[in-house]
Amino acid sequence: MTITIYHNPDCGTSRNTLAMIRQSGEEPDVIEYLKTPPSRAKLVELIAAMGITPRQLLREKGTPYEKIGLGDPKWTNDELIDFMLAHPILINRPIVVTPKGTRLSRPSEAVLDILPNPDIGPFTKHDGEVVIDADGRRVR
């Protein structure tokens, strides 16, 4: 079984998601998308698999989103994809692909919905937020 995560190691949400995948007993294929951005075809495929629009995948914080004016509705889906390919930091993360589906894992615990083994036991995020308590119950 293959799980892939499009990961940014500098992002806490991405690190938490990766930790949950590993705690589920899987070792994913980790793609640091800032170093190895997806091709246009792969990005289009991921967007379609998630059932979202390119605009819904755009990351605003810490990106050139405002400088480029990406909040303007004039941009087409193809143009938004062009911007994401030119500036991979605009791609929101982490994107996780499993046999059960593809998801933008924001918040990180969204990954539990597509993990083959979502019963990962207790889990606390790096910032101290409890996601799964000692009894195995999802807190959020």
UniProtKB/TrEMBL annotation:
Its EC number is 1.20.4.1. It catalyses: [glutaredoxin]-dithiol + arsenate + glutathione + H(+) = glutathionyl-S-S-[glutaredoxin] + arsenite + H2O. It is an enzyme of class 1 (oxidoreductase). Gene3D superfamilies: Glutaredoxin (3.40.30.10). It holds the Pfam family ArsC. One of its GO terms (molecular function) is arsenate reductase (glutaredoxin) activity. Keywords: Arsenical resistance, Oxidoreductase. The keyword Oxidoreductase applies. GO terms for biological process: response to arsenic-containing substance. Belongs to the ArsC family. NCBIfam families: arsC (TIGR00014). This is Arsenate reductase. The gene is arsC.
